[in-house]
Design brief:
The chain is an alpha/beta fold and about 250 residues long. It has two domains: about 150 residues, Rossmann fold; about 70 residues, Winged helix-like DNA-binding domain superfamily/Winged helix DNA-binding domain (Arc Repressor Mutant, subunit A, Orthogonal Bundle), CATH 1.10.10. Helices cover about 50% and strands about 10% of the residues. The protein has a five-stranded parallel β-sheet with strand order 2-1-3-4-5, with helices on both faces. Helix 6 links the parallel strand 4 and strand 5. Helix 9 crosses helix 11 and helix 9 crosses helix 12. The longest helix has 19 residues.
Length: about 250
């Protein structure tokens, strides 16, 4: 595996790039290609470089190489091959390393779930597997304008997901927990360990762990501190009388 653009240059990457005229435009969008398939990297470079206002600043096949290219080339857009293993995880890492970069996914399956996954990973645009080079160039321009064009079916799915997320955020999280779980999370907020909580409530440590696990799942968080903070905020800002019916205690 090559870890930088240098490997591509040694194998003819530069030779594939179209020569731009001396009076080429300067207000172009610099993009970096990320794919672990050399044919994809070279094909996208050949098809996109010099197409209107898009210029390929480099290509990489690993996260480290992509970060190095973004730092050196100051590219605005990453063209990401979603066929790569853990491509969306790579996208998340890139966005943490370079928050200002826009990522456009290519070769995305024509499934609402796949498009939703791209959106949740923070990507700015996508092109389906049957898309053309013109589609990729258009998606890059749209990403720079903070715009997204998608099919009516995908638009409906995104709208539904947004509606569900908004409903979850505005719901009183206390309505999701049993009285015992609320007692546990209150003690977590006070800094008590599982063993200390068990002693305080006169239940076993394993039972406390089960309660904590259920609390994290219901509140859709991964850490005890996050659950405690969410419940603390709810107590301070949401009147109990407006909450949903509580689940039964177990």
């Amino acid at each position: 595996m090559r870890n930088s653009l240098e490997g591509d240059r040694d194998t003819g990457f530069s030779a594939l790039q179209p020569q731009r005229p001396a009076d080429a435009r300067t207000d172009v969008i610099d993009a970096v290609i990320v794919s672990d398939v050399r044919l994809y990297r070279e094909g996208l470079a050949l098809g996109l470089d010099g197409r209107g206002d898009v210029r390929i600043a480099g290509a990489a096949e690993t996260l480290d190489a992509a970060c190095a290219l973004l730092a050196g080339a100051r590219a605005s857009v990453v063209i990401l091959d979603t066929g790569m293993p853990k491509a969306l995880d790579l996208a998340r890492h890139l966005l943490r390393a370079v928050p200002s970069v826009r990522i456009v996914a290519v070769a995305v399956a024509d499934e609402s779930g796949d498009v939703i996954a791209c959106a949740e990973a923070g990507l700015s645009g996508y092109v389906l597997r049957d898309g053309s080079m013109a589609d990729v160039a258009a998606a890059i321009r749209d990403a720079m304008l903070d715009e997204l064009h998608c099919s009516p079916r995908v638009s409906a799915t995104l709208f539904k997901r947004l509606s569900t997320a908004t409903s979850t955020v505005t719901e009183d999280p206390r309505a999701l927990l049993t009285p015992r779980e609320e007692e546990v999370v209150a003690l977590v907020d006070r800094g008590l360990s599982n063993k200390q909580i068990g002693q305080r409530l006169r239940i076993g440590t394993a039972t406390v762990k089960n309660h904590v696990h259920n609390i994290l799942e219901k509140l859709q968080v991964t850490r005890r501190a996050e659950a405690a903070a969410q419940m603390r905020s709810a107590r301070q800002s949401m009147p109990r009388g407006r909450s949903l019916p509580r689940p039964s205690a177990t």
